[in-house]
């Protein structure tokens, strides 16, 4: 719906993330990624018992394996080294995948998968490259994505304090973020542009101190 229902308000109405010729493949990708990853991380994280958690983990990694194979197939055939669907078009499938894959290592792996199992940066090189490509190359993405804010956001949820807390959020961000992602110190000057104080998260997350901000790398 968002792809076509608000064209009169769109700044770039010519952008089509759901092209007719690729809709079947886009839906196929999403039908694997949504239950496996996008919903799967929460199924695992909020599982009431170990058996449910373990089953969700299996489904999750099968979905990531499927996406990695898709990118490997495209790379091997030289038809598409960049995106999940055929051709050279960035589609809704890539956007859907990016939102959760961007946060996977720093949040979902640590918080919902108990820090066990595979991570994207270490075990899924093509998916990891896919995330970085979207972050670096798709206009507007980097400016609207803040992994540190996402970590802090999960840290201040009361129901999750046993695992990710305001106290350990600085270390989790530092140790689990993408190796190429800006450090906290590098992110701070941009906070004002996003409507946050330059010294965020001081005053928002009690686990942070001025010294944390100086030492973050």
What does this structure look like?
The chain is mainly α and 217 residues long. Helix content is 54%, strand content 0%. It has eleven helices and no strands. The protein has helices at residues 23-38, 40-45, 50-77, 92-111, 120-123, 125-137, 141-144, 147-155, 169-176, 184-187, 210-215. Helix 1 packs parallel to helix 4, helix 4 (92-111) packs across helix 8 and helix 8 packs antiparallel against helix 9. The longest helix is centred in the first third of the chain and has 28 residues, at 50-77. It starts with 22 loop residues before the first helix and ends with a helix.
Features:
single chain
Distance between the amino and carboxyl termini:
41 Å
Shape annotation: globular
Q: Number of helical runs?
A: 11
Would you report the number of β strands? 0
SSE-based structural type: mainly alpha
Strand content: under 5%
The ordered H/E elements are HHHHHHHHHHH
Ranges with pLDDT <50 over ≥5 residues?
none
Q: What's the mean pLDDT score?
A: 83
Helicity range of the residues? Answer: 40-55%
Q: What is the radius of gyration computed over CA atoms, rounded to a whole number of angstroms?
A: 18 Å
| Biggest pleated-sheet summary | none
């Amino acid at each position: 719906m968002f792809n076509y229902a608000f064209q009169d308000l769109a700044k770039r109405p010519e952008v089509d993330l759901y092209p007719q010729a690729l809709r079947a493949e886009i839906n196929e990708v999403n039908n694997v990624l949504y239950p496996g990853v996008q919903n799967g991380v929460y199924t695992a994280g909020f599982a009431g018992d170990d058996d449910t958690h373990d089953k969700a983990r299996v489904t999750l990694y099968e979905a990531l394996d499927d996406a990695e194979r898709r990118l490997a197939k495209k790379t091997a055939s030289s038809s598409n080294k960049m995106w999940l669907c055929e051709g050279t078009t960035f589609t809704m499938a890539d956007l859907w995948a990016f939102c959760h894959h961007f946060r996977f290592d720093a949040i979902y792996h640590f918080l919902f998968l108990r820090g066990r199992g595979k991570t994207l940066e270490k075990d899924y090189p093509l998916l990891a490259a896919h995330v970085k490509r979207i972050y670096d190359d798709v206009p507007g993405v980097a400016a609207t994505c803040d992994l540190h804010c996402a970590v802090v956001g999960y840290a201040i949820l009361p129901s999750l304090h046993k695992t990710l807390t305001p106290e350990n959020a600085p270390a989790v961000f530092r140790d689990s973020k993408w190796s190429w992602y800006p450090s906290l110190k590098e992110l701070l000057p941009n906070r004002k542009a996003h409507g946050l104080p330059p010294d965020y998260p001081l005053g928002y997350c009690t686990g942070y101190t001025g010294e944390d901000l100086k030492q973050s790398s």
